[in-house]
Amino acid sequence: MPPDIPHPFSTAESGSFARETLAVRIPSILRTTFAELGLPSQAPGLVPPAVRQSFRELELELTSGLLRGLRERAPDRHVWDSACAPHLGRSWLDLPWYFAEAFFYRRILEATGYFQRGPLGGVDPFARQKAHELAPEEGVRRAVAMLAALPEGRTERCRALMLGSLWGNRLDLSLNVARLLGSLVGDERSDLLVDDSHAVAEQLEARDSKPVTIVADNAGTELLMDLALGDFLLQAYSIPRLTIHVKAHPTFVSDATSADLADALAALSRSLEPRAGALADRLRRELERSRLIVEAHPFYNTSLFFPELPAELLRGFAQCGLVIFKGDANYRRLCSDAHWATETAFDHVVGFFPAPLVALRILKADVIVGLPTTAAKELSAEDPMWRVNGRRGLIQARVKAPNPAGGCWAGAG
Q1: pLDDT value, residue 411
Q2: Potential cystine with 352: which of 1, 58, 138, 331 (Cβ 3.0-4.6 Å)?
Q3: Maximum CA pair distance of the chain?
Q4: pLDDT in tens, 3-20
Q5: Is 96 helix (H, G, I), strand (E, B) or coil?
Q6: Is 43 or 62 the better-scoring residue by pLDDT?
Q7: DSSP code string of 34-47
Q8: For residues 384 and 186, what is the distance between their CA atoms, to the nearest angstrom?
Q9: Which pLDDT score, from 0 to 100, does residue 101 have?
Q10: In angstroms, what CA-CA distances link 293 with 71, 318, 403?
């Protein structure tokens, strides 16, 4: 773990995207979630009075109140009590940014009684929003179109599927990036800021006898793209196992859970597209054979950064030939969501991690490393919002084996 981690981004920073997120986007997400809330058999918005009141109280707290901790009994209460302790009684506009976002989504679960035995107990408060994104088969058609257009050659296919998985990250319901940009697919020449895909493909060729892990981000179309990539890895390389890590419970609106993965497989199976059905059949066979495993560790729902990974996750990652981190939030957590200089080496920042890794990330937050200062200045002159508007992406890797003497890693570039 780097000893010199800078201070994290904060909602107290005037004019920052972090502050705008908490002041504007988060209250909007709260209102949208309430409008779409309810049991699957109900019309949206038909919720118990106690839930309605809890949403009102949370909105008032966000806009003019002070942060309080959890009040409910829940399996993760002790984790959040510890995380909240330094911040109790402070304004939501004076908090570390990632903590504020993660705790906001946890508070939505408290407001709906997700962990309780009430009418909305166990009900995903974002289910309708996720369903809108996945239907009517738009995501399946996109995944099938990507599969139909794959180039010849294992390395070329690997890169094409990584790009599909990357650009799929533009479909983020908490930011609506693809809708804002009008495109799910990026321009490699101007939108791909770092491209270590060839180094990743070489890593797979050299280490295809070790397990691979995908740490997923969003459900819906992006998860379909991830499943297509995972299927290719299982079929093309002699890896013994592919594990997909998802969230243990709903968060960040569109983050994938085990239920979302099951929904994605069902959508593929329902499709009239032969490639979609074949993909679903292969993945189900691999699940039955335990070559494909789905895990949902509660750590991913916390506000902790990845240098604080628990021992059991670290042990699992250490056995992998490659770990693929999807999305902006996972990148933020790899980098401790800190004010790193852009030219800081990615290798240095992720030096705590025990295995080769690659981040497939669309930029929707300020932190970025491994980029020359001149490139950052040019991008800022061309587009002042380049760090946060979801247009640019990166495939950023550190693929060399760790130095057994404890030194720094050697990265892909």
Answers
A1: 36
A2: 1
A3: 61
A4: 689 999 999 999 999 999
A5: strand
A6: 62
A7: HHT-S-TTSPTT--
A8: 18
A9: 98
A10: 34, 17, 29
Tell me the mean pLDDT in the region 217-226.
95
* Residue 260, C-beta contacts closer than 8 angstroms, at least 6 positions apart: 130, 219, 220, 223, 246
Q: Give me 121's structure tokens.
A: 């107990």
How far apart are the C-alpha atoms of 182 and 138, rounded to whole Å? 15
Q: What pairs with residue 215 in β-bridges?
A: 245, 325
> 340-370 pLDDT, tens per residue?
999 999 999 999 999 999 999 999 999 999 9
List C-alpha distances in Å: 127 to 35, 36, 139, 178, 261.
12, 8, 16, 19, 13
Encoded amino acid at 188, one letter: E
Measured CA to CA, the distance from residue 98 to residue 297 in angstroms comes to: 19
CA-based end-to-end distance of the chain: 20
Q: What pLDDT, on a 0 to 100 scale, did the predictor assign at position 262?
A: 96
Q: How many angstroms separate the CA atoms of 69 and 250, rounded?
A: 19
Number of Cβ within 10 Å of residue 69's Cβ equals: 16
Measured between alpha carbons, how far is 298 from 314 in angstroms, rounded to an integer?
A: 14
The H or E element containing residue 243 is strand 242-245
